[in-house]
Amino acid sequence: MHVLGLVDDRRPVGPWTKLSLQLAFASIVVVVGDLRLVTVLDLYGPIGTATSAVFTVVWIVMICNAINFLDNMDGLAGGVAAVAAAIFLAATIINGQWFTAAAFALLCGGLLGFLVHNVPPARIFLGDGGSLLVGWLIATLTVRTTFVDTSDPDFALGSAWYGVLMPVVVLAIPIYDLLAVSLIRIRQGRSPLTGDQ
After folding, report:
1. What pTM did the predictor assign?
2. How far apart are CA 78 and CA 83, in angstroms?
3. For a tag on the chain, would you pick the N or C end, based on fewer CB atoms within 10 A?
């Protein structure tokens, strides 16, 4: 995803090609790495597993593009992503998921170091190479995080089913921005897949 973004920063890749490659990368990770959301759907057999896989691919591509769309002014994408990574870091520490917590800590620290040089007047920028990578890391790490365990009443993050909505709530700003910008572009007769300058 990072290489795709770097290529797109140098020589614009068509929006359909870019989306197709993102879907392919996400599908490979989901199938080969068995990285899936709502694995409780496995109880419904192959259809449930396939549905879970599709949800996960859509989630990864949506979050990658949400962070990419948010990267339109100095400090915005990096700041929002750093806050989200810090919240997910706290959740994974409470949950005792140490590898995922370490990955979120590295992401948060990297983003905070980047933001020092990205505040106006910015000296460095995320570009597609950075924003797609940050979105990819947040999306895949949230899939690796357990937000609810209905079978364990003492589970640190809770046992209520709506705990699965935590990533949606934490990432509400980039998701809202993605949906709003897409709808505005469609209403104006423009493709939602084309980027702004």
Report:
1. 0.88
2. 9
3. C
**CB 101, CB 161: distance < 8 Å:** no
Contact in structure between 101 and 92 (CB atoms under 8 Å): yes
Cβ contacts of residue 14 below 8 Å, gap of 6+?
A: none
pLDDT the model gives residue 37: 82
> Which of these, 23, 52, 18, lies nearest to 38 by C-alpha position?
52
Interior CA angle at 119 toward 68 and 179, to 5°? 25
Q: Distance between CA 100 and CA 91 in Å, rounded? A: 10
Rounded distance, CA 124 to CA 196, Å?
18
* In contact, 137 and 103? CB cutoff 8 Å: yes
**What pLDDT, in 10s, does the model give residues 128-165?**
999 999 999 999 999 988 776 656 777 666 666 677 78
How many residues appear in the chain? 197
What pLDDT, on the 0 to 100 scale, is given for residue 166? Answer: 86
| 125 HSE (CA, 13 A, CB side) | 13
Please report where in the chains the tokens 């924003």 appear, as a residue: 131
pLDDT tens sequence across 61-72 = 999 999 999 988
d(CA 47, CA 82): 36
> Quick check: bond before 121 cis, omega within 30?
yes
Quote the CA–CA distance of 135 and 158 in Å, as a whole number. Answer: 26
Q: What DSSP state is assigned to residue 196?
A: P
